[in-house]
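Design a sequence for this backbone.
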């Protein structure tokens, strides 16, 4: 097959089918419109000229997560996935990058729509000390400091600023990052890269260590995800105006992290084909993991919910490294607040005991004793 070709579909035809294994190509819509739908999320989504479809599943080698159907006569460019490494058009590379980030936001907003009851308004001046205390009481002191610091910058003339300034005096700052060379820094455990109030538009590439992404939901902190090495974090403000998408990033162990601008990242992926494919795979897996979380929440049986939720975490952990055994950085408390269910830790423990290949230690860390067997045994639960 050629690298790409123009294909035509009449109105009402299926381009991609939900749950089918992804093929090694994706599409860019040349003309017409298509609609995306599936059986685990009620709302549909429409794609039009210039939009990309099928890329995430093709790159991640995961089954299609939506059926794509034409709603009018449609023409699409059908492109071999491996051609991504051969693209020289900066505009197209930029389009793919923005598409992946936007799709990630869309699915993230769907996830939060499912779990959020009453998102605390981070711009409500009366709530800032409550938010700062939540982070402080959960051991994230630098996040508490950064939230207050960003608040002071945003609302310097507000009557509540003096209270915040007094509060911030009681918080010990974490050691500042140590510059290594070029864009690389050694960043110490507990350091807050950015807060929900103060995104800095930096891109963070984790060379070693781990970074947790958190936010405040329903007057408590919630773990969004914990990223291992090789992952990239974008601190830019979300394009969608939905408050739960704003987040705080905290370094969970001493780490080596490259800090760069989006322009520097785009320049790098334009000239480095291996990094380009790695980043496309990585963002695609972020989307897949988020979709799996939504599927987990939709399960009526709590055991099935935990099976799929753990599956979603393992997909992120094993993207770049084949592992047989892993101790997840997530504790049961993290799982509880990610699911956002009124459920007791003991119930989580008792349910985990019934799931094959899963154990936990005295610190409540979750252990997967055989990842391949876990994937093989529970893959059907994710479909």
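Sequence:
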């Amino acid at each position: 097959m050629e690298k790409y070709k123009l294909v035509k579909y009449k109105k009402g035809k299926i381009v991609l089918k939900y749950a089918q294994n992804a093929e090694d190509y994706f599409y860019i819509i040349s003309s017409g419109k298509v609609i995306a739908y599936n059986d685990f999320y009620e709302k549909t989504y429409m794609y039009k000229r210039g939009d990309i479809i099928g890329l995430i599943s093709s790159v991640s080698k995961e089954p299609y997560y939506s059926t794509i159907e034409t709603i009018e006569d449609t023409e699409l460019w059908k492109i071999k996935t491996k051609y991504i490494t051969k693209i020289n058009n900066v505009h197209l590379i930029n389009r793919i990058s923005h598409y992946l980030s936007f799709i990630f936001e869309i699915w993230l907003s769907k996830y939060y729509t499912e779990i959020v009851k009453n998102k605390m308004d981070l711009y409500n001046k009366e709530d800032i000390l409550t938010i700062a205390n939540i982070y402080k009481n959960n051991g994230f002191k630098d996040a508490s400091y950064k939230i207050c610091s960003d608040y002071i910058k945003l609302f310097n003339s507000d009557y509540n600023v003096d209270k915040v300034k007094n509060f911030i005096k009681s918080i010990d700052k974490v050691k500042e990052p140590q510059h290594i060379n070029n864009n690389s820094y050694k960043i110490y455990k507990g350091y807050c890269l950015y807060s929900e109030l103060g995104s800095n538009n930096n891109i963070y590439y984790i060379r070693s260590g781990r970074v947790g992404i958190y936010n405040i939901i329903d007057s408590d902190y919630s773990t969004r995800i914990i990223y291992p090495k090789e992952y990239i974090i974008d601190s830019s403000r979300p394009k969608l105006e939905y408050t739960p998408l704003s987040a705080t990033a905290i370094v969970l162990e001493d780490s080596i992290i490259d800090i760069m601008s989006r322009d520097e990242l785009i320049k790098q992926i334009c000239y480095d084909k291996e990094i380009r494919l790695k980043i496309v795979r990585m963002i695609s897996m972020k989307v897949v993991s988020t979709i799996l979380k939504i599927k987990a929440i939709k399960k009526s049986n709590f055991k099935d919910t935990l099976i799929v939720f753990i599956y979603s975490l393992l997909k992120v952990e094993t993207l770049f490294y084949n592992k047989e055994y892993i101790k997840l950085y997530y504790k049961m408390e993290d799982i509880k607040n990610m699911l956002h269910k009124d459920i007791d830790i003991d119930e989580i423990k008792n349910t985990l005991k019934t799931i094959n290949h899963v154990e936990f230690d005295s610190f409540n860390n979750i252990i997967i004793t055989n990842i391949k067997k876990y994937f093989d045994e529970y893959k059907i639960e994710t479909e």
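Residues 90-115 form the longest helix (26 residues).
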